[in-house]
Amino acid sequence: MKKLLALMAISSTAFGQHIEVKQSKGPTLGYTADSQVKIIKKDGLSFKDLNKNGKLDIYEDWRKPVDVRAADLAKQLSVEEIAGLMLYSGHQAVPARTEGYFAGTYNGKPFDPKTMDASDLTDQQKKFLKEDNLRHVLLTTVSSPVDAAKWNNKIQAFCESVGKGIPANNSSDPRHGTQARAEFNAAAGGLISMWPSSLGMAATFKPELVQKFGRIAAQEYRALGIATALSPQVDMATEPRWLRFDGTFGESSKLSAAMGEAYCNGFQNENWGSLSVNAMVKHWPGGGSGEGGRDAHYANGKFAVYPGNNFKEHLIPFTEGAFKLQGQTKKAAAVMPYYTISWNQTSENVANNYNKYLVTDLLRKQYGYDGVVCTDWTVTGDHKAMDVFVDGKVWGVENLNMAERHYKVLMAGVDQFGGNNDMKPIIAAYAMGVKEHGEAFMRARMEQSAVRLLRNIFQVGLFENPYQNPDQTKAIVGKPEFMQAGYEAQLQSIVLLKNKANILPLQTKKTIYIPRRYIAPSRHFLGFPIPASNEYPINMELVKKYFNVTENPAEADLALVCIENPKGGIGYDKEDVAKGGNGYLPISLQYGDYVANDAREVSIAGGDPLENFTNRSYKGKMAKSRNLTDIQMIEETRQKMQGKPLIVSINVSNPMVFAEFEGKADAILASFGVQDQAILDILSGKAEPQALLPMQMPASMQTVEKQFEDVPFDMECHLDSEGHRYDFGFGMNWKGVIQDERAKKYRTPSK
Questions:
Q1: Is the pLDDT of residue 15 over 80?
Q2: Domain residues for 735?
Q3: Is residue 515 located within the same domain as residue 592?
Q4: N or C: lower Cβ tally within 10 Å for the chain?
């Protein structure tokens, strides 16, 4: 009788091309008939026969512990299949782009929306899934949530039809940034909920908000078919010039730890399951101390330096945050080391991904981490240039061939190769290991990584049901309550830095003048050109809903100038090399031209096969900001207003030198990737500012040059005309300077 009741509780439902088997005493199973997968009935329960052998294998039995299932499957896999698991694809767009980055073809042709479906698999995807056994896919842009769900279903059906039926573990870099000009309307929903940047989240000083974000984002990710997040980025941003500062939680180790813990708790959902997303915390052991602020995506920024001898504090966001989680998850599911060479911190100056001490001795043995370690992208590629973003990042091991690079990464204790679609170098590395250590040793080493990688696929329920119902995806992603939560977070992330004579909040229907913003042509962080622009920096139709708008400053009650923090380049210029220099320039945090007279005479670190010197000093050289016109616009507007109030709204991604213009502004708002509407809600008093600076704002570039790249809170901070110092934890509301416990709680002493 009990058996009969159990069987009656099982039902099958078709969604598009896949079938769902629902059962009251077990998980919902999803499969496709075309894959030849059958349902096995045992003890009144249903299981998927993924390897199609007609019997229930241990790895197919969802009643078994995850590690037991992973170990069973790992033993069944060939070396080639394990090598495929170790691959993490290059960036995949849905649909594939027709040229440039993320390009792909469909039956040999570029994507044509008239004859092709955006959710179809590319030729390249089919190849690396079948021939290279790849199962970890990095997803970038998608044409719509529904297209993403359909693409996921197609890739899962493809994977299910071959080999042992291992599903694809699709992943994403952070994808919840705002569309600044879009009007916020919770009732309308959106393509995905929109939140402030990580730096904006940090400005709230509220880990509970970040955990809420994680829980919402996880639901949206899973509805898109994404089961791994390549986040959070918990690097301590102790170097103010670093180009990835905005992706961090600021310069406090305590705040970064608290935010990283909350982020991972939110995404991983405490007890794993179909609503969980694996979090890949990055970048071990911290990438925020690049010399001179240069970034290790480029060879010119390959060195992380520690002049303050503060290496250990950079571990805190990992060891006291991402590795101390609630519930069954315990630790972030994966860790990504950064590209950098942690200069003179270990016995060999090689990139973190190649460093056995950092991965095996420190991360795994000392801190007991047994999750997946995945390299950052293209760390095994060939190095050909000093200033190219897509260059191979083989820092410190440039002399090794492709197989040797993969072998050294494996022997360092790393499990996975980011941005590598080709298993052949891993097979070659395996052969090298067999020759040196024997077959048994290398097989055990490969199975060790396979278990870790499979664990992350099992624990989020992909083996049971990797499919999505596109109708549900449409209802979940960007649904009104998620949009509302993201917008409220935006409001909570805006910092009021200055409010002379309590000019804010503004009365509605004030007449406001907003100048157009001109930006000269330049190059993006990724290297592609940015054309010149001359447009309103804010959605003027939105502004008109709050204030009267005029193009004549004489008619205005006040002016609003919208700018970005100075963009000071990547710290390197080939033209300097052509002129006989070493190529290295300062990275400036001010708008006006900056000459680095206070820089180091001799760089701490240096050396590259493409350079015949080791001194990377830029002392005495000049840096120019590509948005000098921002400060010129402030000055011009001040003159036009003839003493009437001027408000400055700054979109901030890095610390900056306020001394250049602060005295010309009556009020200053700092935001971190929010919608225009959020700024207008603050200006008009519909919402009150409550955020605090998650970093220091330097008094000058001189204090920037004198600070240590690895030490927080070691700069002289800007003192404004009202006597307020723009230090970590500073912020204002309508009553004045905010005095609460948040800043004290998360401030760590400077060295």
A1: no
A2: 480-566+627-746
A3: no
A4: N
Q: How many CB atoms lie within 10 A of CB 354?
A: 25
Position 186 confidence tier, pLDDT thresholds 50, 70, 90:
confident
The CA-atom distances, in angstroms, between 117 and each of 122, 143, 148, 158, 161 are 11, 11, 11, 16, 21
Q: Is residue 144 part of a domain?
A: no
Q: Domain check: are 415 and 363 in the same one?
A: yes
Do 410 and 315 share a domain, yes or no? yes
CB 708 within 8 A of CB 291: no
DSSP string, 11-64: EEEEETTEEEEE-TTSPPEEE-GGGT-EEEEETTEEEEETT-SSS--GGG-TTS
In a domain, residue 174? The reply is no
542 and 665 in a single domain? The answer is yes
Does residue 401 share a domain with residue 285?
yes
Task: Write out the two tokens for 728.
Answer: 């970590």
Q: Is pLDDT at 5 greater than 60 in this prediction?
A: no
Helix 253-268 to helix 207-224 angle (10° resolution) is: 40
Question: Residue 137: inside a domain, yes or no?
Answer: no
Within 13 A of 616's CA, how many CA atoms are on the CB side? 26
- Do 669 and 648 meet the contact criterion of CB atoms below 8 Å apart? yes
The pTM assigned to this predicted structure is 0.95
Averaged pLDDT score across all residues of the chain: 94
User: Residues 312, 360: one domain?
Assistant: yes
Phi-psi region of 270 (alpha: psi -120 to 50; beta: other; left: phi over 0): left
Q: What is the pLDDT of residue 526?
A: 61
Q: Is the pLDDT of residue 384 over 80?
A: yes
Say how many domains are in the chain: 4
User: Is residue 55's pLDDT more than 60?
Assistant: yes
d(CA 381, CA 419): 9
What is the reported pLDDT for 102?
A: 78
Measure the CA–CA gap between 569 and 574, rounded to whole angstroms.
13
